[in-house]
Amino acid sequence: MDLKGKLRQGLRIFGDGDRDYGTVDRYDDQYVYVGERRIPYDAFERMDKDRLYVGQTGSSYFATDARATDEAAIRVPVVEERLAVGKQAVELGEVQVHKTVETEQVNVPVELMHEEVHVNRVDVADRPVAAGDVADAFKEETIRVPVRGEEAVVSKQAVITGEVVIDRYRRVEQQTVTDTVRREHVEVDENYQRARDTFRQHYTQGRGKGGQPPFEEAESTYRTGYLAANDERYRNREFDEVEPELRSDWEASGSRGGAGWEHLREEIREGWTGARGR
């Protein structure tokens, strides 16, 4: 049943035979709370005005034994990190193509026409002045004769003589992204307690004699081996194989008052063996 937007505090809840189960104290996106009881949305069959009705299955949430079971359960969330690898566009570099301008002397041959003037005096036989020549006789003047020719006219025109083509193409390559993630491990003390007496006996028979400290001071060493045996990193691996890693972590932590690994190795190994069921 879709109850979103319909719920409010104070709504009364009823079951078969109009049995009154109380009122809604609070609610969230998934559950309705009646006192300490948590009722999922799908336990409700219908809503009639100011009443919510649960079916036969929903009524079980209000049973005394169900409440006791729910209160006795303690949920411990176990958290781990996971890598989420995405992609984003970035500029990896650039390719620069430079254009430069240079000047070059160019010689272009061209044929030009021009007129040349030659003045010649020619003797002719004497003749009488004609009537048309009288007006210009004995008149001083300058006679201009145009001399024509061609000259070179230079103009420049930009033309495309070629192209530089820059191609870009995409290439897909496989990369492995490496990072560290964290994971929570839950160690149930009940399991350790079952092995604790065995560790105490081992310590007492072996190193507990001759003025050695009590077991409680050495217990952390056994527990180190016990926890390592249950560590996901060492799953399906033997003690001799992981010993260099355990030793490195132990020496880096400065545990057990700075005592050396060789001195405490058997206690750690016993803790490992006890966790693995011998």
Concise summary:
The protein is of the alpha+beta class and 278 residues long. It is 27% helix and 9% strand. The protein has helices at 56-59, 64-72, 189-205, 215-229, 239-253, 261-275; strands spanning 12-14, 20-23, 26-27, 31-34, 37-40, 44-48, 51-54.
Notable traits:
single chain; 278 residues; alpha+beta; four-stranded mixed β-sheet; three-stranded antiparallel β-sheet; elongated
Say how many strands there are. Answer: 7
Mean pLDDT: 81
Report strand order across the widest sheet.
2-1-7-6
Provide a count of the helices. 6
Radius of gyration: 54 Å
Order of helices and strands: EEEEEEEHHHHHH
Q: Between the first and last Cα atoms, what is the distance in angstroms?
A: 54 Å
Name the shape in a single word.
elongated
Q: Could you describe the largest sheet, including whether it forms a barrel?
A: 4 strands, mixed
Which structural class should the secondary elements be placed in?
alpha+beta
Give the % helix: 25-40%
List low-confidence stretches. Answer: 65-72
Quaternary organisation of the protein chains: single chain
Estimate the strand proportion. Answer: 5-15%
